[in-house]
Amino acid sequence: MKIRDKVNNLSIQKKLVGVYFLTTLLVLAVNLFMYININVMMHRLDQIYTSNINLNQLSDLLDQVQSDMNSYLNTKTTDSMDAYYKSYQEYSAHLENLSDQVTGSEVQRMERNIRNMSEEYLSYTELAIEAKRGRNVEKYRYYNEEAATIYAYLKSYIGSLNMSQFKYNTTNYTALSKALRYVEVVNMIVFIFVAFANVFLVLMVIRDITRPLTALSQVADEVAAGNLDVDMLEVSSKDEIGVVSNAFNQMIVSIRNYISRLRTSMDNERALKEKELKMETHLKDAQLKYLQAQINPHFLFNTLNAGAQLAMMEAADKTYEYVQNVAQFFRYNIKKDHDTVSLKEELELIDTYIYILNVRFSGEIQYEKDIDEKLTGLMIPSMILQPVIENSVNYGIRGISWQGVIRVELYEDTEAGVARLVMEDNGIGISKETIEKIMSDQSFENHLDENSNGIGLQNVISRLRLFYDRDDIFEIVSLGKNQGTRVIISIPIPKEKEESHV
Amino acid sequence: MIDCTYGKDTIVKTDSNNSKKKFYTVTPVLLLALMIAISFLGVYIFRVQYDKNNLQEEIEEYRKYDKYYAMITSNDRADFWQSIYNGAKAEGENSDAFVELFAGNIGTGYSMDQRLEIAIASDVDGIILEGEDDIVLKRSMEKAIENGIPVVTVSQDISDSDRISYVGISRYSLGQTYGRETVKLVGHMLAENEALYNGNTPVSVLVLIGKESDNTGQNLLLTGIKEEIAKNSSMVNRVTVSTYVVDDSGDFTAEESIRDIFIGQKEVPDILICLNEIHTNCAYQAVIDYNRVGKTNIIGYYDSDTILNAVQKEIIFSTISMDTAQMGKYCVNALNDYLDEGYVSDYYTVDTYVVGQDNIDEYLEGEE
């Protein structure tokens, strides 16, 4: 694996050159080996018949010695004598090449015999020449005869040896040429195999090199088609492709991150817009409901004002005050077509509302206030407190046998950094299930009570939540049956405002 | 849920990728190894094949010998001489001497004396020679001795020569053996056909003698035969012994000469005594060809397969043989002793034995 890693870390150029080099080297090595083998063989083939050539030379030299001797015996010239000694020397020198051993080899034994016979022959020729020089006719004739006899034997002996050598050499030649043919076949097979294996090897290596490239192109294709959700490319090499693959992987990761970030911010924006829209919708809805509930408040207000002046002219002070209050209540509703109002205004509306109710229901409700005046400047969405009080009156206090009390308290909870507006009654209370239902039910399109001023508690809750972007802004507490109900609105105090207040 | 499946898919993919990776790692390495292996295998096979073909040349690490003996016979190819040669050669191997059936393959077939001359010129260490009563051969032999080359005669001696030793059978005792066999055969024939061989027509015995045989030896042999017959008084007058000279001077003449016996003579002999392997073979074939089986009996020489076969078929009455391997061995021993110690026993006698109807089966079994 280590080697593989090392190989993987090479550049493509080095890889390709390496493969080429390796395979070529192998082919070259095999080739060289075969070539050397064949060469050795050819050399041997060349040498096969040298023994025959040598023997032929020996035979020729023997003839030369014999004819030179005869020539001298015939003519007795110095030239022929020189020629004789020359061929004598040459022949002797040639004899040295022959074996003088008795061995199991017939050829070697024959060589030995030829050598010995030749020596005897030469000594006879020498004796004949000597005798001729000494003019000993009888002797030189005798030696000449002896020499001639041995010459004849020698000739046929050499002929025989030549023949058997030739036979032997031919056997070798046949064997060699057979081996040579065999080499050809082996060479062919080895070369064909090595060639195919080489091609295969190169193919494999190149495939190995291009495989990550193919994978890269496939993934790139997918990405180009818009699918960013692809698998990361596996990078095993550190060559050029490895680098490109890594870069590609990083690019995909970056794109993905970028897209996800983009998506989040878009989501946030959309949520914000949605909230705004909702707020608007709710307000509009509240107002719509309100307008639906009060047919032309302007007309009503003007009418009531006229009533108040009439009461003043008639000096009916109580009536005047009452009508004046009712007119004020409606005027608030007409005036407040904008989003936010101060707590002060809201609290004043409650005062007016409770006065009207007390006139309507002959002072049944005891109204208590404990307001921290520093906090009355806080801005809240309009039409919040009146529906809560209306709720308390309609569902809490109405119909109880004891004195109904409504208590409004505003104080600062410095720990939580909020202004707490507590609206409390001592009515019949609300069961836990009902509280949960009110708190969880976000839809404000539930039917309006016949007796309601038109704006439901759910509408108030959701508007508060949307406005402050907090879930704990509105709280309903009831200790149990006939234990009364407490609504707590926790209004966050803006920092600078807080400071100015403090 | 979808994510989960996706993850699994990825894992499977990685697995296959790993195995693929392994394949891509292992295969090139294997391939490379295979290539190298095939190359070497090819070279190796080539080497083996080459060596096998060149066995002759490569492995010839010949043994060297101290001594070189030439063996010269009248018929190198005959079983008899091959057998002697093998005995001699085996003994030579033991005593660092190479024995060669000399110059048999040289030229167009030299005569024994010429081969002897070549051996002398070749300066061999010793000569084993089949003796012949031939003056030229004798002269060549003497030349060898002059050149300091010891000569041992085998099977037949050359009388009155300086050969260092003779290995073979005493001609006289061989004659006696032939004589005993003849008596046995005659007795057998008479017992079978008493009427045929009365006083007027004695049993004729023809002894085939080689033309170039040593005369002294022949005489001793004939004496041996005759003496054995004479020992049996009842047979003396009923058996005639005569000789027939077979002309075996040239090639193939022996066979013609023996056939002449059956064609030329009016009376074909009742018993043929053959003194060498060739004569025995020729006589045996002639008896068959001229339809003389049962009429002309043969007492043969040597125990070649052909002859033993004929004995089994009762065409040859009996054959006299000797331990040829022992003969060869004695020849080499004689030469070694002479070269080592300067003297040697004049005669080496080899064991003879008779193979006839009564012991042929035993003999064949023994050979097997």
Question: How is this structure best described in words?
Answer:
The complex is a heterodimer of chains A (about 500) and B (about 375). With about 500 residues, chain A is an alpha+beta fold. Residues about 440-455 and about 500 of chain A have low confidence and may be disordered. Chain A has 14 helices and eight strands. In chain A, a hairpin with a 4-residue loop joins strand 5 (about 405-415) and strand 6 (about 420-425). Chain A folds into two domains: about 1-210, Four Helix Bundle (Hemerythrin (Met), subunit A) (Up-down Bundle), CATH 1.20.120.1730; about 340-500, Heat Shock Protein 90 (2-Layer Sandwich). Chain B has a six-stranded parallel beta sheet with strand order 3-2-4-5-6-12, sandwiched between helices. Chain B is about 50% helix and about 20% strand. Chain B has three domains: about 1-60; about 65-170 and about 325-335 and about 340-350, Response regulator (Rossmann fold, 3-Layer(aba) Sandwich), CATH 3.40.50; about 170-325 and about 350-365, Rossmann fold (3-Layer(aba) Sandwich), CATH 3.40.50. Chain B is elongated, with a radius of gyration of 35 Å.
